[in-house]
Amino acid sequence: DVKVTQSSRYLVKRTGEKVFLECVQDMDHENMFWYRQDPGLGLRLIYFSYDVKMKEKGDIPEGYSVSREKKERFSLILESASTNQTSMYLCASSLVSGGYYTQYFGPGTRLTVL
Amino acid sequence: DAKTTQPNSMESNEEEPVHLPCNHSTISGTDYIHWYRQLPSQGPEYVIHGLTSNVNNRMASLAIAEDRKSSTLILHRATLRDAAVYYCILRDVVKNSGGSNYKLTFGKGTLLTVNP
After folding, report:
1. Which of A5, A41, A43, A110 to mutate to test the interface with B (most CBs of B within 10 A)?
2. How confident is the model at residue A81 (pLDDT cuts 50, 70, 90)?
3. Reading across the β-sheet that carries A65-70, which strands appear in turn?
4. Which of B45, B98, B106 sits opposite A42 (nearest CB)?
């Protein structure tokens, strides 16, 4: 079974702190993704990566950066956390086969910024 | 970006079939239709995908209109564990210096409530 793990299920940080969210997948997938999910807004894509050291902005990249130094690991960084970044953060990896996608999601990290 | 339209919510009774509709009138000829669902307090999970022909798997069936402008996810016998948000998604093309890559854009989906 594919496994996508995230470093924490719950995280509480203070405004202005630097926050690292880690995601690891064990299936040698090329593509990895970071989403945030807020009530009434659905899932919104922050960043994604289709290869080591490669990244693409998603729909809401402002206030975030990412790092992918190894194929299995994709990190989301909040350089200076703000209260409006309180959210559920979901990581995913995907297998690309032909024209269809199968994305596998981690359990999510609920981040609260005070 | 390819777009889909789904009802915000639907309701069903346990052990009855559920038909979840999706419109995707701007679909291109090579776009696969993907369905995911998100159970409460969990990340989304893959349900099914299809291109032109109807598809069946252990979770659901996917019926695709002949013109491909709409599709329907069918749960043959809804259970309480099927209560979730269901997303119908087409892939988006992302052009970059290396060529093209793809991503999935999740909309708000359909919230399915299953009554006992």
Report:
1. A43
2. very high
3. A4-6, A19-25, A73-78, A65-70
4. B106
